[in-house]
Design a protein that fits this description.
The chain is about 40% helix and about 15% strand. The protein binds nicotinamide-adenine-dinucleotide. The site of nicotinamide-adenine-dinucleotide has 28 residues, from helix 5.
Length: about 475
């Protein structure tokens, strides 16, 4: 497509950020009336225990407090509980969190505690948002959920609404609620409602995305709907079954993983044929039935690479999902192969890996690509320097890399950029690494970087991309 003054595909840019823009809904809640016990009457609020006060649980707790609920923010981490109770944000990067925390700790509406059973005993609603992961062998690592279940059992009482927001394999919530009821002897309501927000945009996403709600029975669905209507400005979508709500989260995330894998395969085709895939994507996505994602060095974080494997944990015979995982994980080796090809050999080479968290701006290392690239480079004989704007030198050393302090280094002959961090997009690599021969642009984001004469920038699905090396 020729470069013109106007771009007819301008509205059909990357689908990776979403196929449509979901605008936040304005808050239409009036001043609520406190009810004790809270039984779901419109316009009323009660007391909630949020079990797990991490990156998602704490913003949720604040969302509930700002809609009038009294909140116990429960966590097993005493240091985190102390920080929350001091009114100071435990981490940065979440707009509005510091202000809301100061306000609601200050007013006494939110209080953190490690005494989960007491919090649940005092609450009308207990909402669980602790991590569940998948081990390398495919089994489910649910230690945190088992702990949260014990807390629920110890504090459960009749009419408690138990909500699970943690992403889980299909069937988990019904089992958990039945266990709580059987072991505590209490008649509880049960609900699953997937948390669909992205850290760093939590409050905006909460106001924008329809809230999917499934209940263990009709009464539970009604009670959970009443709860979410009292705390959210977004529409509430009642699902026919609890299991459908569980599957919706697994489906939307697996959709992304599979489509990123497809984009990564398209990138290999484009690389081999000298085609710019970004133009192909914009062209293909200019009608409503194509939503091609962006290729890159792979998928990190504790969501997208994990949830397809949660589906496989209950339904192991699914080929596309399995293959997509392997394709996305294989991008690291493609990047390292491209470095090796450009340098002739990795033995004795000095390579800098920049961008070590799973994505720019989020201090999360789960399944992050950068450290995996570093491991592969080291295994093949390279000396690896590493840096990330969100990590200290000690953090980088713990990842088995020599921390790069940002000063010029003539030894470095290759750089792999594994996140789209602003720091690297326009970096002057020519001055910093005068011996540089190749920059692997893992997120196709470094078009503005300055390279020494003769050095190559190699991306994914770009003419001169990794698969063509
Ligand atoms: N982070 C995201 O972007 C995101 C987005 C959507 C959904 N989610 C869902 O939210 C879950 C939690 O994610 P997060 O980012 O908040 O994790 P996190 O690691 O930041 O926080 C989890 C918290 O739970 C606490 N915890 C563990 N076991 C506990 C127990 N038995 N009782 C009380 N607290 C306990 C931990 O100490 C930690 O503070 C994820 O597993 C996922 O299902 C996360």
């Amino acid at each position: 497509m020729s470069a013109g003054t106007t771009d007819p595909l301008g509205r059909a840019t990357s689908m990776l950020g979403g196929s449509f823009t979901a605008e936040p809904h304005p808050c239409t809640h009036g001043t609520p009336v406190t009810a004790k016990p809270w039984v779901g009457a419109p316009g009323t609020v009660g007391t909630i225990a949020v079990i797990g006060s991490g990156k998602i649980g704490l913003p949720l707790a604040l969302q509930f407090a700002s809609h009038g609920w009294r909140v116990h923010a429960v966590d097993i981490n005493q240091a985190l509980v102390d920080i929350i109770n001091s009114g100071v944000a435990p981490w940065g990067g979440e707009p509005n969190l510091p202000e809301l925390l100061a306000e609601h700790v200050g007013s006494g509406r939110l209080r953190a505690t490690i005494d989960g059973p007491a919090a649940v005993r005092d609450a009308d609603v207990a909402l669980v948002v602790v991590p569940v992961l998948v081990r390398d062998d495919g089994s489910i690592a649910d230690k945190a959920l088992v702990g949260a279940t014990e807390t629920l059992i110890a504090g459960a009482h009749d009419d408690l609404l138990v909500i699970l927001e943690t992403t889980v394999p299909i069937g988990t919530t019904r089992e958990l609620v039945a266990k709580v009821a059987a072991k505590s002897g209490a008649k509880v309501f049960g609900c699953f409602s997937p948390e669909r927000v992205l850290t760093g945009q939590t409050f905006r996403n909460l106001a924008a995305y329809p809230k999917l709600v499934g209940g263990t029975d009709a009464a539970s669905l009604a009670r959970a709907t009443a709860f979410y209507e009292s705390v959210l400005d977004a529409p509430i979508a009642q699902m026919q079954t609890l299991e459908a709500a569980e599957m919706a989260k697994l489906a939307e995330t697996t959709y992304r993983d599979v489509n990123i894998a497809l984009a990564n395969e398209f990138a290999r085709v484009a690389d081999r044929h000298g085609i710019d895939l970004s133009e192909v994507i914009r062209a293909a996505n200019s009608q409503p039935y194509s939503h091609i994602h962006e290729p890159g060095i792979g998928v990190g974080g504790h969501c997208i690479p994990v949830y397809p494997r949660m589906i496989l944990s209950t339904d192991g015979d699914l080929d596309v999902i399995k293959t997509a995982r392997a394709v996305n994980d294989g991008q690291v080796d493609r990047a390292v192969d491209a470095v090796a090809k450009q340098l002739g050999s990795l033995k004795g080479a000095t390579v800098a890996v920049l961008g070590l968290t799973y994505r720019e701006g989020v201090r999360e290392l789960a399944h992050a690509r950068g450290p995996l690239v570093a491991d592969a480079l080291r295994e093949r004989g390279a000396t690896v320097l590493g840096a990330d704007p969100l990590l200290s030198a000690d953090d980088v050393a713990a990842l088995k890399m020599t921390p790069w302090d940002g000063s010029a280094n003539a030894q470095v002959s290759a750089v792999v950029v594994a996140t789209a961090d602003a720091a690297y997009r326009t970096m002057d690599f020519a001055t910093l690494f005068p011996g540089l021969k190749v920059l692997i642009d893992g997120r196709n984001a470094c078009a503005g970087a300055k390279l020494p004469a003769g050095a190559k920038r190699i991306g994914f699905g770009r003419p001169n991309g990794v698969a063509a090396q």
